[in-house]
Amino acid sequence: TIGMVAVDSNGDVAAGTSTNGAKYKIPGRVGDSPIPGAGAYADNEVGGAAATGDGDIMLRFLPSFLAVEEMRRGASPTEAAQTAVKRIAAHYPDFMGAVIALTKTGQYGAACHGIPTFPFVVQDKTRNVFEIITVKC
Amino acid sequence: EPNIPVVITTWWFSNATVKAWEVLKEGGTALDAVEQGASVCEVQQCDGTVGYGGSPDENGETTLDALIMDGKTMNVGAVAALRRIKSAISVARHVLENTKHSFLAGELATQFAVQMGFKEESLTTAQSKQLWLTWHNENHCQPNFWLGVKPDPTKHCGPYHEIKKSFKVTQPEVHMIVDRYNHD
């Protein structure tokens, strides 16, 4: 799955995902990626978030929506992503997944669980080229 | 001063990020950036986890899911289990812009895409067929996602049937192994 969040020059936020899902799934199975609030979420008043991992588990917790709501309450993007991941881990300690989050002012962060590290890519006006940032899970 | 425009992307998908950034740098919208950025991954089949020819299901078919959300209007377009159409996020964008709905699924989402001018073609490749053949013939359909069925899904392929039981049997929920090449 690719998950992406962007803020344009007007301050408008968008988020999205695209995926071919899990290998060897039962035909008809759909994961978290196309579910609003699960795979991704965006709100111009706050920012946006996207999730990736075990979609059968993640879609039960709407982690992208939760991350955006945490940022609305004043959390940093990293804290918001951590809260979303921890909410899932509290119920499923063995789950594997990650959340990325971005505020409407361009702050960003990520959190992950069940894998050693998780990479995400950032490009903004402070960089000449994109940067791959890796967070420890 | 706000740090905008800006784009962030999951995993190592830098080419998609570069495309999204080009759109933003030229003054394009966040919605265009997300659609065009993710479309790069659909074409380049990022890690086999995006686009055609990856993650075959139990029948060997690749289907696609995509979502795009506009934070300005809270409008959403999404497709799930989309068959035989490569440009999933662009179909999702058409759901957002050309319907009053939010989410279309399956064969009927394909019909919508064809109506919107998308080309219908197989999403199977030689590589995805080989993946499926190895899983089915050499690995005896392991791993899979079945529980409470017979024949024993931890050893055999289907078709499966529900085990008729007079009392509830609790079975541990075995989670999907997520790595670079297998994730939602």
Which helices and strands, and how do they pair?
The complex is a heterodimer of chains A (137) and B (184).
Chain A (H helix, E strand, L loop, with lengths): L1 E6 L5 E7 L20 E4 L3 E7 L1 H4 L4 H10 L4 H15 L5 E7 L4 E6 L3 E8 L6 E6 L1
Antiparallel strand pairs in A: 1-2, 3-4, 4-5, 5-6, 7-8
Chain B lengths: L5 E5 L3 H12 L4 H15 L19 E7 L4 E8 L5 H11 L4 E3 H10 L10 H13 L10 E2 L10 E2 L22
Parallel strand pairs in B: 3-4
Antiparallel strand pairs in B: 2-3, 5-6
Helix pairs in contact in B: 1-2, 2-3
Describe this structure in words.
The complex is a heterodimer of chains A (137) and B (184). With 137 residues, chain A is α+β, with helices and mostly antiparallel strands. Chain A has three helices and eight strands. Chain A has helices at residues 55-58, 63-72, 77-91; strands at 2-7, 13-19, 40-43, 47-53, 97-103, 108-113, 117-124, 131-136. In chain A, the strands form three sheets. Chain A has a four-stranded antiparallel β-sheet with strand order 3-4-5-6, with helices on one face. Chain A has a two-stranded antiparallel ribbon with strand order 1-2. In chain A, strand 3 and strand 4 form a beta hairpin. In chain A, helix 2 (63-72) packs across helix 3. The two termini of chain A are 19 Å apart. The mean pLDDT of chain A is 98. Chain B is an alpha+beta fold and 184 residues long. Helix content of chain B is 33%, strand content 15%. Chain B has helices at 14-25, 30-44, 88-98, 106-115, 126-138; strands at residues 6-10, 64-70, 75-82, 103-105, 149-150, 161-162. In chain B, strands 2-3-4 form a three-stranded mixed β-sheet. Chain B has a two-stranded antiparallel sheet with strand order 5-6. In chain B, helix 3 (88-98) links the parallel strand 3 (75-82) and strand 4 (103-105). The two termini of chain B are 35 Å apart. In chain B, 44% of the residues are buried. The model of chain B has no long low-confidence stretch (mean pLDDT 95). At the A-B interface, strand 1, strand 2, strand 3, strand 4 and helix 1 of A face strand 1, helix 1, helix 2, strand 2 and strand 3 of B. Strand 2 (13-19) of chain A pairs antiparallel with strand 2 of chain B, so a sheet runs across the interface.
